[in-house]
Design goal:
The chain is an alpha+beta fold. Among the domains are: about 20-145, Topoisomerase II, domain 5 (Alpha-Beta Complex), CATH 3.90.199; about 315-445, Topoisomerase, domain 3 (Orthogonal Bundle); about 470-690, Neuraminidase. About 35% of the residues lie in helices and about 25% in strands. The chain has 19 helices and 35 strands. The strands form ten sheets. Strands 8, 9, 10, 15 and 18 form a five-stranded mixed beta sheet that branches. The chain has a five-stranded antiparallel beta sheet with strand order 28-23-22-25-35. Strand 9 (about 200-205) and strand 10 form a beta hairpin. Helix 2 (about 35-45) packs across helix 3 (about 55-60), helix 7 packs across helix 10 (about 310-350) and helix 10 (about 310-350) packs antiparallel against helix 14. The longest helix has about 40 residues, at about 310-350. It is elongated.
């Protein structure tokens, strides 16, 4: 077991390192994942100016990336759809609509001139062995701009993930120029599909960005979606709209997709619905608005590091200077070597040193004769003449010597000297040279890379605020069902986000989400929208008696806390409700059974004289007399009239029946002010059995 534990631990570490370094996380230096780097390397190797079948490119790339042709083809198509580093022919799919590309054997590509300028410089590129040791592949490309910010990246590795949003290439290059000039800069994402972005929470490459579709609502009966958010397709967006319609959040008559090269999704609205009422709901309930979280994780110096956009720009500006310095120094050395060779050749031919070897019979004497002939011209040479230089001179054909044009040779050497001077000037003013290089990159792509995403701050739309509030909650008194899909008495209107308070005539209440169909029972007393703001200000008054006892009790309470779906009891199990009210001030009358020694046959009570208690408290006893009738006399709300009107709009007393004052028996049933008709019938039936 110890061996297995060690084996798993070590192998999992290798696996985690491999996924992080070689599969999921991009490199900061060139902004590419390994598969993307190998695709570009294959295209550089195959480059002959013509298009190549993608299938051939995939096959060539498998020499470096042994993970199947599907992964290579998918990565190549994604890279091609950015339209910056690959030139394409054929159907490469449409990332906006979600349409897939044609098979690799039908489509063609080649590396673009811009890709060569940015990545390709084999003389300063470090190469390593491929996975099988048969070939060489670049460790990283000497990229001169922050490609990681232009392409963006997404990847999930072991214990970490990255999500870098794409930015506009021209803005990225301008930011690099600004840093080299010592100026301030800022960058915001730019998405291929356009849309509108709120970057107020975008923390320099981290944080999050909210992106919205571009919507035309100028026609009150029609909405046209012109651009979609990043990460969505027209198909997924339409599906989200259909789901919102099925859920009842939107009322839309039809959806038509006229998308071609540009997005155009037309929504025709239902009768009585207008565009101004639907736009916010589209943002709240569909993919017309998306929140995108960012995590700028990259591989830097062989380790995963969380960085920022500013740090990436600064890193690449310093890297650009280093790469340009390497290129210039390499070019300068090559030019000097070429000038030395040209000068040596001119002296060898112009001074006819080749004639001194005519009488020599051995190789050593020939070389010595040439070296001796060049000694008087040492000052014209930039370095010491080596044997290899003499060998090169001896290989010059006789025809070339006889046709040698001294004046032309001098002009060419002067041109080389001018190039060396320019090169050295660029080295002395490396920052200015870097800025000129970056400006030339902008000129290459400025016509093809305009900003597509508009930047604007917009208010957060709460789904609850824009939800429809016209779902009718109905109650079927006979079946005992409550819900929006129940046929029965309409109690109130609510939204899908509302919770409903159900109070039964046994004093038990429950809070549930707005139901389609819910069995509440045939003893429903009161329903209301369960909003803590309103319920915490609503006093519930219950007048009740206890079964088998004379007398009456009053309990006043407030419902201000609950767990959804849980039953709570306000009254004892044996309680029989005589009356109920949600008014904060009212008077009520209790009529008593006559007694021989008492002339009092009724008594009036003021509800405000009794304190409001918590829901678990006992009721306050009003009287010990036997009750024959209960009646609410007055309800006074002079100072809080509007509050009660608002409450009435979101609550329902079930079937307010007036008591039958004429039909009385010896043990008369106390009429319930807010009791349902079905419950009243059941109480009369019980009363007849008892008598």
């Amino acid at each position: 077991m110890a061996y297995i534990n060690k084996l798993l631990t070590e192998n999992f570490l290798y696996y985690a390192s491999y996924v992080i370094m070689d599969r999921a996380i991009p490199e900061l230096d060139d902004g590419l994942k390994p598969v993307q780097r190998r695709i570009l390397h294959s295209l550089f190797e195959m480059d002959d100016g013509k298009f190549h079948k993608v299938a051939n490119v995939v096959g060539h790339c498998m020499k470096y990336h042994p993970h199947g042709d599907a992964s290579i083809a998918s990565a190549l198509i994604n890279l091609a759809n950015r339209g910056l580093f690959l030139d394409t022919q054929g159907n490469f799919g449409n990332p906006i609509t979600g349409d897939e590309a044609s098979a690799p054997r039908y489509i063609e590509c080649k590396c673009s001139p811009f890709a060569k300028e940015i990545f390709y410089h084999p003389k300063i590129t470090r190469y390593i062995d491929s996975y099988d040791g048969r070939n060489k592949e670049p460790l990283v490309f000497p990229a001169k701009i922050p490609v990681i910010l232009i392409l963006g990246a997404e990847g999930i590795a072991v214990g970490m993930s990255t999500r870098i949003l794409p930015h506009n290439p021209i803005e990225v290059i301008k930011a690099e120029i600004a840093y080299l000039q010592g100026k301030a800069f800022s960058l915001s994402p730019d998405f291929p599909a356009g849309g509108t972005a709120d970057c107020s929470e975008y923390a320099d490459g981290n944080g999050k960005v909210r992106v919205r579709a571009t919507i035309d609502s100028s026609d009150p009966k029609k909405i046209v979606i012109k651009e979609i958010p990043y990460g969505s397709t027209t198909e997924s967006l339409i599906n989200s709209i259909e789901e919102a319609v099925r859920a009842g959040h939107l009322k839309i008559a039809s959806i038509s997709d006229f998308t071609t090269s540009k997005v155009e999704i037309e929504l025709k609205l239902a009768r009585g619905v207008y565009a101004r009422d639907v736009v916010d709901a589209l943002y709240a309930f569909t993919e017309c608005e998306r929140s995108i979280s960012c995590n700028c994780l990259v591989i830097k110096e062989g380790k995963p590091v969380v960085t920022t956009v500013s740090e990436t720009i600064e890193y690449h500006a310093a890297r650009l200077l280093d790469l340009l310095r390497q290129e210039l120094e390499l070019e300068r050395d090559e030019l000097k070597n070429e000038l030395f060779s040209r000068t040596l050749e001119r002296i060898f031919i112009e001074e006819k040193i080749y004639t001194s070897i005519e009488t020599k019979r051995t190789n050593d004497t020939v070389i010595k004769a040439v070296l001796d002939g060049l000694k008087p011209f040492t000052k014209e040479l930039s370095r010491k003449v080596e044997v290899e230089d003499v060998e090169r001179l001896l290989k010059i054909p006789i025809r070339r010597i006889s046709l040698y044009d001294i004046e032309k040779a001098k002009r060419e050497m002067e041109q080389i000297e001018r190039r060396i001077s320019e090169n050295e000037m660029h080295l002395r003013h490396i920052v200015d040279y870097a800025i000129d290089i970056l400006q030339s990159y902008i000129e290459m792509i400025e016509k093809t890379c305009p900003r597509k995403t508009k930047l604007r701050a917009f208010k957060r739309i709460e789904a609850r605020a824009v939800a429809r509030h016209d779902f009718a909650l109905k109650y079927d008194a006979e079946g005992g069902y409550l819900g929006t899909e129940v046929s029965g008495e309409k109690l109130l209107e609510a939204s899908k986000f509302d919770k409903i308070l159900i109070l039964r005539n046994n004093g038990i209440y429950t809070i549930i989400p707005l139901p389609d169909k819910f069995f509440a029972g045939q003893k429903l007393l009161w329903t209301a929208i369960a909003k803590k703001e309103s319920l915490s200000k609503t006093t519930i008054t219950l007048i009740y008696s206890l079964s088998g006892e004379n007398g009456a009790y009053i309990k006043r309470t407030i419902i201000d806390s609950w767990l959804t779906g849980r039953d709570y009891s306000l009254l004892p199990e044996t309680a029989v409700i005589l009356g109920f009210s949600t008014a904060s001030e009212f008077d009520f009358k209790l009529e008593y059974k006559p007694k021989s020694r008492s002339k009092k046959i009724y008594e009036v009570f003021h509800a405000k004289n009794y304190t409001v208690r918590n829901r678990s408290a006992q009721g306050i006893k009003l009287t010990d007399r036997e009750i024959t009738r209960f009646e609410i006399l007055t309800t006074q709300e002079p100072d809080n009239k509007r509050k009660q009107e608002d409450l009435d709009a979101s609550t329902a007393h079930i079937s307010k029946k007036k008591p039958n004052r004429e039909a009385r028996s010896k043990k008369e049933i106390p009429p319930l002010e807010t009791i349902s008709e079905g419950l009243l019938k059941a109480a009369l039936k019980k009363h007849k059995k008892e008598n």
